[in-house]
Design a protein that fits this description.
The structure holds two protein chains of two kinds. Chain A is an alpha+beta fold. Helices cover 42% and strands 7% of the residues of chain A. Chain A is built from 16 helices and five strands. In chain A, helix 5 runs antiparallel to helix 8. Chain B is α/β, with parallel strands linked by helices. Chain B has a 22-stranded mixed sheet. In chain B, helix 16 links the parallel strand 17 and strand 18. Classes of the chains: A alpha+beta, B alpha/beta. The interface between A and B is large, with 99 and 93 residues.
């Protein structure tokens, strides 16, 4: 059958092409073309059932490692949770119990939730709530077709009419529903685990380059009496060990995240910080930290909160703000600033829009920043401008009010003053 | 209908309608009512500056006198929105400068305002009266100089919590000598010292001055002089209160305060030395609003002050007040409507004060009118939340921040689902809710089932799966703003409830599991939404489609994708192509 052949053809397409942006020849488009023709031949309901049946089993990988390109519709009668390509996720059965060790004992609540929810299917069905799809059969809606397979959804936009979408969503397939539901529960574990292995789950890891999947959240969780609902859904053996890793690392690690900067080696007693948590405005944070320095009664506490200072750069149209407490060395600060102001510097050089910013940027920028062109200076509490780097880091934090990336030529004569000043202060 | 009211009559009737909802309803009745209404609408509120363009607003409402515009999403307050994200007000100001010459009021929140914009405002609107910049940034005190110098009829200048680049205090001296119309001045966010004599003269010559909120740089010994020149003040914010106590200053202050028979609201109190607080006792009986959230004063002194304020309706305070102080509050201040307790040391591992969930329970029991709560604490239990819910079913805003992410019920080690469930079940009028602590999908089931009037929900480090998000999106009928961070919510719930997003103002999701592919799909399917992916790692299509995006901001709009995006924001477009700014 035409449809089938198109689908089997898809199986062989490698991942890279899958994500190519070529249009009319893409397998998805091809499939949709066939699907829309399908509709002409069959009446709505039949078409969908046929379509789903056709999409089932033979095309899906059951052995655990998904080839993302294999299928366009995943909700088959036998297999759930088709994994996404390239992420190495395992597939789980309905209820997610036997095949993957996704639900361990500490996740009893999750399992019971699943069971309970199996009984309340209607109330909990996910619906494809597209505009105009006010079908009377809403309560037996088709649940989401995919279980983590995203490109299947691209079927829908290519359908010729909204009605096509509606009819698709209206018809419920009982097994599909149940699956769609448990998909959610298990699908999360997959997504989570995939994300987790990348070190990004629940972390504000803007820079995945750091490579260390740490988080205060994880650390604290591991510390709490095994109550770890989030981490409990492990879908591979690797997970528990990673969890342990994190927990042993926890006490030593503290980190603040600000524009993907590095860890802060704060005192062990002080808590590691998460960006934007607790949710307190900068104005209040800065005010409180200044107040606590002034106020004798509050002395002796481990370092007060954030210390935001503005960073300006000659010729840049905008200011940035950085929290000095997220860094512990000049190197960290310098690399973070480099990242922040890279875009300005590159434009200044007149280079063309670089598709690979990482490739272009770093080396060139380092040269620029460390070379004759730019130097980093700061304004201290007395209003004097000095070169950054002359005084110990702690002293620098205490006195820095503002940062400025100046042209090298403008900064001549600053260095000696800094040295003198620190001598005088001693 | 053969006979109908002449337009003038209808216009006159419509003028009594102040609520936007009513006016919107009126404009739907028929075409002629639409026309009449749009010509007489004077106030416009734009909850999201990118939901509509200045041109569209001006075209529909040609005679507007007051605008209120909001820019960045709420989580920008906590540094979750990168700098240069947007929300520039200049395009609005320049469009309005051309079309609304009689504009009187501009109120902005979380927008980027430049000195250029301020100057344009000061020169374009001859009858300009009210400028309120709440949590805005991007301007300096030079911009304020333009406003002071050129706005001859200025009544209100309110800079609350804005981030102003403070070049000098000289701006205040730009108010001309014949300028007397000031009613409200809030400069509490500024750092530099203004010329005190200029300030004194300004206060003296403005007989209608009702609100004066000073900045830290005004020392306590100068307060008396100002108060004596403005005994009609209703709202007063002190400067720093930290001079060592001196009898002459103290008695001067007492005398000055006693002359202020209309004072209702006090704020400021930076670095306050407790010994100065009694100077205000003479006004306490009339005080309805007290902002002590910068006062690092211990509980006994706080209690001493609060016990003199029986008419207190609104209290903002640090957690130094402790459970004991809250108990006193609940017994003295029976009119209390709003309570905010901020953490004095949120980053330390151990609690530094004895403030627990008990304080909030006590206040909920003792203050029958309590409707708005913001509470930071370190431990919470389901039992306490249930008690609060039962005590105060009239709660409208409930924002609880347990400082430790995912902290469970400290008594039972269970999630706090039941507690928050009780809140939404009992407090049927709840409009705003912020969650914290250990929470599973169940809490979202409760929220979806019960929180039918909920308009704004903030979620962090909560939930187990997409089901949680699905419950909220499918159950909360009145939901307008949803902001989520660090939750395991992904594509399914989002896509399944795509239509819901058009009924909301905006959705924010950061550090969740929404994949780029899903964002693209959402953008394609929903032309009336702007689906913006914020990702500072570089273009999203340089990573696999399944890779989660860093941050996602979805909002409904009639203005199409915005043209001022920075390089780390991508709008998911209808044609599926990746569009850079």
């Amino acid at each position: 059958m035409g449809l089938f052949s198109c689908l089997t053809k898809n199986k062989q397409i490698p991942n890279s092409e899958r994500y190519s942006s070529s249009k009319s020849s893409s397998p998805i488009n091809l499939c949709c073309f066939y699907y829309s023709h399908f509709q002409d031949y069959f009446s709505g309901q039949q078409a969908i059932l046929h379509f789903i049946d056709l999409m089932s089993t033979p095309l899906l990988d059951v052995d655990g490692v998904g080839h993302g390109n294999a299928t366009l519709m995943s909700s088959s009668a036998s297999v759930d949770c088709v994994s996404q390509s390239g992420s190495g996720l395992k597939e789980c059965n309905f209820l997610g119990l036997s095949d993957c060790s996704s639900v361990d004992s500490s996740a009893v609540s999750n399992v019971s939730v699943e069971n309970k929810n199996n009984l309340n299917l209607k109330a909990t069905e996910l619906r494809l709530g597209l505009p105009g799809s006010r079908s009377p059969e809403r309560d037996s809606d088709f649940s989401l077709l995919t279980s983590g397979k995203l490109d299947e959804k691209q079927l829908f936009p290519l359908l010729p009419s909204k009605d096509g979408i509606c009819s698709l969503t209206q018809k419920s397939i009982v097994s599909g529903n149940k699956r769609g539901f448990s998909d959610t529960v298990d699908g999360f574990s997959e997504i989570k685990s995939s994300v987790f292995t990348e070190g990004k789950w629940m972390f504000n890891a803007t820079g995945s380059d750091s490579g260390t999947p740490q988080s205060v959240v994880e650390a604290k969780l591991a510390g709490n009496a095994g109550l770890n609902v989030i981490l409990s859904n492990n879908s591979s053996g690797a997970q528990p060990s990673m969890k342990k890793e994190v927990s042993t690392r926890a006490p030593k690690e503290g980190h603040n995240k600000m524009n993907g900067s590095n860890n802060n080696s704060s005192a062990p007693a002080a808590k590691a910080q998460v960006v934007g948590w607790p949710p307190i405005r900068s104005f209040r944070k800065n005010t409180l930290s200044t107040t606590s320095k002034n106020n004798d009664e509050v002395d002796g506490k481990p370092g007060p909160g954030a210390l935001f200072v503005k960073v300006s750069m000659d010729g840049a149209p905008y200011l940035r703000k950085v929290d000095l407490r997220t860094y512990s060395t000049y190197q960290e600060l310098s690399s973070a600033l480099e990242k922040m102001f890279m875009c300005f510097t590159i434009r200044k050089c007149g280079s063309q829009e670089a598709p690979d910013r990482e490739m272009l940027g770093e080396n060139k920028l380092k040269d620029l920043l460390n070379g004759a062109d730019y130097v980093l200076t700061f304004e201290d509490k007395d209003g004097d401008w000095m070169l950054v780097g002359d005084v110990p880091w702690e002293m620098f934090i205490e006195s820095c009010k503002r940062l400025k990336i100046m042209k090298g030529s403008d900064a001549i004569g600053l260095a000696p003053r800094a040295m003198e000043k620190s001598k005088n202060q001693k | 209908m053969a006979y109908s009211f002449p337009e003038e009559v209808l216009e006159y009737v419509f003028a009594f309608l102040s609520s936007d909802k009513d006016r919107n309803a009126v404009s739907l009745v028929c075409k002629s009512w639409y026309e009449i209404e749009r010509w007489c609408r004077r106030r416009v509120f734009i909850g999201n500056c990118y939901a509509v363009s200045p041109q569209i607003v001006i075209r529909r409402f040609p005679e507007v006198r007051a605008v209120k515009i909001k820019g960045k999403p709420h989580f920008a307050d906590f540094n979750l929105v990168p700098e240069r994200w947007g929300a520039y007000v200049y395009p609005w100001i320049s469009a309005m400068a051309r079309s609304y010459p009689w504009l009187e009021e501009i109120k902005l929140k979380r927008m980027v305002v430049t000195d250029e914009s301020l100057e344009l405002i000061s020169k374009s609107f001859k009858n300009f009266k009210v400028l309120m910049l709440s949590s805005c940034e991007g301007f300096t005190t030079d911009g304020l100089s333009s406003i002071a110098a050129n706005c001859r009829n200025l009544r209100e200048l309110d800079l609350r919590e804005s981030d102003v680049e403070d070049l000098s205090g000289h701006w205040l001296s730009h108010f001309p000598d014949n300028f007397t119309s000031l009613v409200s001045l809030n400069m509490s966010c500024l750092g530099s010292e203004v010329s005190f004599s200029a300030l004194e003269r300004l206060v003296s010559r403005c007989p209608n001055l009702k609100t004066l909120r000073l900045n830290r740089a005004v020392p306590v010994e100068k307060l008396a002089s100002l108060l004596r020149r403005a005994p009609q003040l209703v709202e007063f914010g002190t400067g720093a209160y930290s001079t060592e106590i001196r009898t002459d200053i103290f008695s001067n202050l007492v005398g000055a305060f006693s002359g202020c028979k209309h004072l209702k609201s006090l704020s400021g109190f930076w670095d306050v030395v407790p010994a100065y607080l009694p100077a205000m006792y003479c006004v306490c009986s009339r005080i309805t609003s007290l902002n002590l959230s910068y006062a690092t004063v211990q509980s006994p002194d706080l209690v001493e002050l609060i016990s003199q304020c029986p008419n207190l309706k609104c209290l903002w305070v640090l957690d130094y007040i402790e459970d004991a102080g809250l108990k006193a509050l609940s017994s003295y201040c029976k009119d209390l409507q709003e309570l905010r307790v901020f953490p004095s040391d949120p980053y330390s591992a151990e609690p530094n004060v004895s403030l627990t969930e008990q304080g909030l329970v006590t206040v909920s029991a003792g203050c029958p009118k309590l409707q708005s709560v913001l509470y930071f604490c370190r431990q919470m239990s389901n039992a306490a939340l249930v008690a609060i819910a039962r005590n105060r079913p009239n709660l409208i805003r409930f924002r609880l921040c347990i400082i430790e992410p995912q902290a469970p019920d400290y008594l039972t080690l269970e999630p706090l689902d039941t507690g928050f469930g009780a809140i939404v079940e009992h407090c049927k009028e709840l409009r705003r809710l912020s969650l914290s602590g250990l929470l599973t999908d169940r809490v979202f089931e409760y929220i979806g089932t019960h929180a039918k009037k909920l308009e704004m929900l903030s979620i962090a480090f909560a939930g187990d799966s997409d089901l949680g998000l699905h419950y909220v999106l499918s159950g909360c009928e009145s939901l307008r703003k949803l902001e989520i961070r660090d939750c395991p919510f992904g594509d399914k719930a989002l896509l399944a409830n795509a239509a819901k997003l058009e009924t909301m103002r905006s959705l924010w999701m950061s550090s969740c599991s929404v994949s780029y592919g899903a964002c693209k799909l959402l953008g394609q399917k929903m032309p009336n939404l702007n689906v913006e992916v914020i990702d500072e790692r570089g273009p999203p299509d340089s990573r696999p489609k399944t890779c989660p995006v860093e941050k996602l901001y979805v909002y409904r709009t009639v203005a199409g994708p915005r043209a001022d995006k920075p390089d780390f924001v991508w709008t998911m477009d209808e044609d599926g192509a990746l569009r850079l700014s």
